[in-house]
Amino acid sequence: MEAKEEILRIIDVLNDTYESEEAWYGPSLVEALRDVSPKVAEARLSSNTHSIAEIVYHMTTWRIFAVRKLQGDAEFDIKTKDKDWKKFPVVDEFEWEAIQMELSLSQEELISELEKIESDALLEEFVPGRDYSYYTLIHGVVQHDVYHTGQIGLIKKAVKSMRLEEDDDFGAYDGGSDFDKDNDYY
């Protein structure tokens, strides 16, 4: 059996960005989501931005993608916008719990698949159906998590500063902003 030191380091980084209380860059994903209510999870800062619920769904989708690729599934892909960025017009307590549970399960599956790898040599192999390595894919998941965790933090701050959580019409908030109207960054 060959060494798998890099795989173990990657697992540590994935776990740190997901749930550590000591991530060097700021709150982990779990910390960022800790006090997000269903109303905050469904909020949009403007009509052309994603909600926290949609971002979490998107993060889960790409974890599942990584798991399927680690399992050798060359056919699995995310080809439709609904599979990548599902819309959640209303997020109640049950829906929000389900979205968070799916994220948690996808993290467990990803770590489990990585733990099955017997050698760091797999990291140099190309992902089935892609033109990049497993190393790039897995580090991409880490970078993706950090990026979207930052978005979640910004959305939470914006929502709190607008004090929208107290507003009964919170879910209908549009913000009236034309910020990045032609872009789909968030």
UniProtKB/TrEMBL annotation:
Residues 29-152 form the DinB-like domain. Coiled coil: none annotated. Pfam families: DinB_2. This is DinB family protein. It comes from Dyadobacter luteus.
